[in-house]
Amino acid sequence: MRIKPGANTYGKNAVNLSRIIRHEDYHEFRQVSVSVALTGDFDTAHTVGDNALILPTDTQKNTVYALAREHFTGPIEAFGLTLSQHFLSRNPQVSQVRVELVEHLWQRMAFDGAAHPHAFTGGGSEKRTTVVTRTAAGTTVVSGLKGLMLLKTTDSAFVGYPKDEFTVLPETTDRILATECEASWEYTSAGLDFEVLHHRIRQSLLRTFSEHKSLSVQHTLYAIGEKILQENDEVKEISLIMPNKHHIPFNLEPFGMANTNEIFVATDAPFGYITGTVTREE
């Protein structure tokens, strides 16, 4: 029986990078976490301890910082493409490069209607994401967002579901719909205007969530994905994670007050976990 190495990768995770882009009269501040994973001919490193083909992960980290000075000035997708090309073109033993970037969003403070030139506030829990995967055969770009808190106070219902001896959940035609949305979409090309597309897709997501007459989280998830694909030919498919962050009506009747669907208990756990992918029919 012959034993040999199976699939393996290695790289540098969580390279935390902050970047000031200095314009004449204002600054931009960017903060990203970059992870690099290399796949290739690394068998001898595993079997005989020969590191001749192992690009040190410390070198990978330093490359991220060094290339950021010239190349991290636009969307994270563009920087990911630059990094992936750098590692693939210089290392013939590497067959695939995967670069994942997560951007922490900062916004310039504003006072009296004017943006401050160099003071910022955090953008909350939302982060922008991309994964660039490059091989000799081609490149894929999968971008998205996570930590996007969404809530609407009406236009959400949940009725008509199966009931058994353990079902106590009452049907409702008017409830809070709240979620922490994560979305990822695959682009059809690596040569697109990623900045414009990201904001257009995000705006479509927000508008559909707010306007959709929801009969379930699944119903709204599909409506969001469907609308984004209808409006953006550059998107091949989109996957969404939409956990149901429950807000349970609090019973005021023991205190002599009517229940008017205004007071709720916000719960962290347990919660419903709903995922789905919406794709184009071949």
TrEMBL record:
Pfam families: Uricase. PROSITE patterns: URICASE (PS00366). Keywords: Oxidoreductase, Purine metabolism. Its EC number is 1.7.3.3. It catalyses: urate + O2 + H2O = 5-hydroxyisourate + H2O2. Pathway: Purine metabolism; urate degradation; (S)-allantoin from urate: step 1/3. Coiled coil: none annotated. The keyword Oxidoreductase applies. PANTHER family: URICASE. Catalyzes the oxidation of uric acid to 5-hydroxyisourate, which is further processed to form (S)-allantoin. Belongs to the uricase family. This is Uricase. It comes from Hymenobacter antarcticus. The lineage of its organism: Bacteria, Pseudomonadati, Bacteroidota, Cytophagia, Cytophagales. The gene is pucL.
